[in-house]
């Protein structure tokens, strides 16, 4: 996932600006990542301090610099506060695949914001990174994320048993995937 001249891309949708998360955003990141409901299904303990948020922001910068991923901060156009993030991780360039993940402040759940951000990131990945496959690994209890993935055309491929060890326990994860040709087909059908 080489990004030309290392400039962080900004994505714009009808309601959102997806941009780089910086140290200035640490308190905003802490605000939603300290909520147990937000982090419950993403393999992290709730954040307690600004240092926890800074560690997360440093990770975003590291995966961007190493070319293994990219994480956009989700902001509403009318205000620049980061209310969540969405992006790619665990990129495998030689196989043209990556994983996608997102989280969003609870006060914005159920408003279509995660879906809008997810779609913009997916489109960017297929069009600019020339991906063939995007994967979403989702805990079976995380019904909202399963619906989000399915709404974007992801197919549930199966259950990965005890796939990750996070927060002191083994997690089963559903493997979802979206292929470039599936995305192109969905795009052409929605334009008809």
TrEMBL record:
Gene Ontology cellular component annotations, sorted alphabetically: cytoplasm
Transmembrane regions listed in the UniProt entry: none
Domain of life assignment: Bacteria
Boundaries of every N-acetyltransferase domain copy: 16-180
Keyword Transferase attached: yes
GO molecular function: protein-N-terminal-alanine acetyltransferase activity
InterPro entries: Acyl_CoA_acyltransferase, GNAT_dom, N-acetyltransferase
Keyword terms, alphabetized: Transferase
CDD domains, sorted: NAT_SF
PANTHER family: GNAT FAMILY, PUTATIVE (AFU_ORTHOLOGUE AFUA_3G00765)-RELATED-RELATED (PTHR43792), RIBOSOMAL-PROTEIN-ALANINE ACETYLTRANSFERASE (PTHR43792:SF9)
The protein's name in its UniProt record: Ribosomal-protein-alanine N-acetyltransferase
Naturally occurring in which organism (per UniProt): Viridibacillus arenosi FSL R5-213
């Amino acid at each position: 996932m080489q990004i030309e001249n290392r400039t962080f891309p900004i994505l714009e949708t009808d309601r959102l600006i997806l941009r780089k998360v910086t140290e200035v955003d640490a308190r905003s990141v802490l605000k939603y990542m300290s909520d147990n409901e937000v982090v419950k299904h993403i393999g992290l303990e709730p954040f307690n301090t600004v240092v926890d948020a800074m560690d997360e922001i440093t990770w975003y910068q590291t995966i961007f610099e190493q070319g293994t991923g990219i994480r956009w901060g989700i902001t509403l156009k009318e205000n620049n506060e980061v209310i969540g993030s969405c992006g790619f991780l665990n990129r495998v360039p030689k196989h043209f695949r990556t994983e996608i993940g997102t989280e969003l402040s609870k006060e914005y759940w159920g408003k279509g914001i995660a879906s809008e951000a997810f779609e913009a990131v997916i489109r960017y990945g297929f069009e600019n990174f020339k991906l063939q496959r995007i994967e979403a690994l989702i805990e079976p209890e995380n019904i909202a994320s399963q619906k989000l993935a399915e709404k974007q055309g992801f197919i549930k491929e199966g259950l990965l048993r005890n796939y990750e060890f996070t927060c002191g326990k083994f997690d089963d994860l559903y493997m979802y995937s979206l292929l470039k040709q599936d995305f192109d087909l969905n795009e052409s059908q929605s334009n008809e």
